[in-house]
Structure formats: C-alpha cells, structure tokens
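Re-run with default settings, no changes from the original entry. Doing this only to confirm the output is reproducible before filing.
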Amino acid sequence: MTWSHPTLIDAADKLAADPTATVDSWWFTTKLHTDETVYWVKIHTMGMQGTCHSTVSLLQEPEGHSSTKQITESLDAVTLPGAPLDARTSILTISGDLDDLQSSGATDTASVQLTLQREEPVLYNSGSGLFPLFGGMNGQYALPGLTTSGSITVDGTTHQIGGRTWFDRQWGTPSSEPSRTTWLGLDSERAGTRASGTPSETAPPGSPHSKRTAHTLTRAHRTEQASGHWQLTAPSLDASLTITHRGLPDSHDGLYAGPSTVTGTLEGQPIAGHGYADVFA
C-alpha cells in the first residue's frame, strides 16, 4: 500500500527507535466496542534519558472498569522497536509494520490483545513530519484510522472486540521542559477525515499547528467553555468543533490524557466522531 506525500521523513524507516533522539515514543489509543459497551485503551512506551516509561490504561463506558499500570525500567531491561518492529517491556508489546501492527498490554485487572490494519494514508504532522518543539527538532506522524480487532479481558472475563486505533509515532531532541501544551487527535465518522495537532490561543499566522489528511491546519484555536469542555476553531478549514473530554486513569497533576466525543462542522459540513487529548498543564 503506497501513497505519495511531500514529506521529509520515511514513515517506515522511522518506526524503529532513533538512536539520536532523547525522547522516542510509540503511542496507541483505541476506541473498542462490544454490544453496548465501549472500551478506551491507551498503550504507550517511551524511551527518555536512559529509561523506558510504559503505560497501559483502560476506561470502560458506560460506568464500569477503570484501571492503569505505569512502570519505569532501564533501557537494558526492555526491547525498544528495531527493524522489524518488535518492542517489549514488562507490561506491553508492539510489533509489525506500517500496514499490519500488533499491540498488547496489561494492568493488574485487565489485558488487551489487538490486531491493527492500515487502510488510509500516513498523517504527517506539519505536512513534513518535522517541526520545532520545546527548543529542539521534533518528528511526528500518525496512523489515525487503524481497523482494529482482538480481545479484552476484564476481571477474568474475555470479550471479542472491534474498533479503531490511533497510532502516534514521535521522536525528538527537546532542550527545554514542556510548557502548557495541548495535543488533539480527532477521528471523524466521515471516511478519511482525521486531524492531529497542538491548537493554541496565540498561534502566529501561517504556523502549521496541526494537520488532517491532505490539508494543513493553521491558526487552530482552543477555548474553554463554561461546561469545562473545549471549543476548537480552525478558519483555514472552516472548522468549529465542540470537544467533550474525560480523563483516562493515568491522568495526574500536570498531565491530562483522555478520550473525547467531537461534534460540529468541518469545511462547512456537519461532522461527528471521537478523539484523544494529551495536555501538559
């Protein structure tokens, strides 16, 4: 499966760990469903300054199971992705290639096994996949609409599930601490419409703060509503979106991570879907 894009990176090559990066991240967030139950799952591993940080989190809706497990290990105790892709820590595994991936993880009370297939183009942040961030150069792309199947086990009961997964690959060499930053990934119910980026209240004209398939968003703007939810506007795509968000159990002081539902208009047309957020407060 091939598509042509004006990018500066090779997504297939960049699946593997970057030995020059001080931060190296592989991040999966998934909306799964069985019958009337929805499971939000996050599987994330990140190499940073000689250590590996891994997270597996689960949120079940309507009101149900919530669990998370986080662990920090020496890089010598884990296997970070090489070529072919094969990552293993004490709580998760990741393997495969751009078109077919497998991901699994476990908390103390739940586990998940996922098979992921790509049917859409790679989404390159800022159009090129490279942009300045936190005083250094950052590389980032996403596989935002992965068709997902597999199983989830909660409190000893196993369910066969289906859904969609967002995979985000990021690496970089930051030279300063993260400031207050919001990242949003939006997956609409309209086929092929995805958005990834860092909306800001002070985005300079022409700054590529986020991107969706085949388009670059500029001057994306997020405001807090009285309800506590967010309003995202992007004039370049005639977008006005209401984002209703809630936290995953691994959210804590200084970091919010969670899923959301999305409604509004994009390019003048009604749109609905779901999304994900990471917020450094």
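Residues 201-216 have pLDDT under 50 and may be disordered. The longest strand covers residues 136-154.
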